[in-house]
Amino acid sequence: MRKEVQKYSIFIFILFLFPIIVVNFPSTPEQVTKAEPQRNSLMVYAENLLESDVPQLQSKSTKALVYFTHSHEAFQPIVQNKENLTAVYHPTSNIMAFEDTIKSHFDLNGIQTEFLAVDTMDEMKKKNRAFHEAYNVVRPFVDKQITENEYDLIIDLHRDSAKRKTSTLTYNNQTYGKIYFVVGENNPNYSKNKDYAEQLSVHLNKLVPGISRGIFGKKGEHVDGVYNQDLAQNMVLIELGGIDNTEEEINRTISVLAKAVSMALQDQNSK
């Protein structure tokens, strides 16, 4: 009986690794060219991870909330390809369009993911609010969501305004959109939020050295300085890539972010 179970376990493990093996060992250049449009994002963006980086499902179920304060932030190459426009903000081809990719990779790493069901910038238009008021507009929605539900991590996801030279990393012949974290130091308890951001940054750079640009603290005049992080100690603001990053680069980075989140939450759960 034990041998039967061992055989079954090995079979399942091989099935799990098979997509990565397929990506790394194409049959012919012609087949690669023909298959390119059909490549599954979960296969493409795992191809540079080592065997030790294969997601290990967590023993404890974890839950994350993701929302977008600047919901129409967009990546110029994506808007150009899909809308034939040169723009860094768009009502549909924007950072929110990555929800399915985020959910898929977070699920793969044992993280149940929910998205705040609000388009902040649409709400701002309805209420005739200025761009700098975005954090105030989204705040009651976030507050209600986290009051009624428990989350291990809350992510406010943005697209940075940096140009390609600053926002892009090449690692093992693949390009990624870099990540950095913003901590609002006008929040009296910002050190707790900073701890979460630092843990994520460390794990990101363990997986792909240099993919995290680190932690940026902001306070004082002409900045929000809190970013709603006073609502929860386990809330982080992430800047994902920059205006010039491609869809493929952002997808690769999301796959690494999902693994880093899983590792950081495992650390938290073991304390």
UniProtKB/TrEMBL annotation:
InterPro entries: Spore_II_P. The chain crosses the membrane at residues 7-25. Keywords: Membrane, Transmembrane, Transmembrane helix. It holds the Pfam family SpoIIP. This is Stage II sporulation protein P. It comes from Sporosarcina soli. The lineage of its organism: Bacteria, Bacillati, Bacillota, Bacilli, Bacillales.
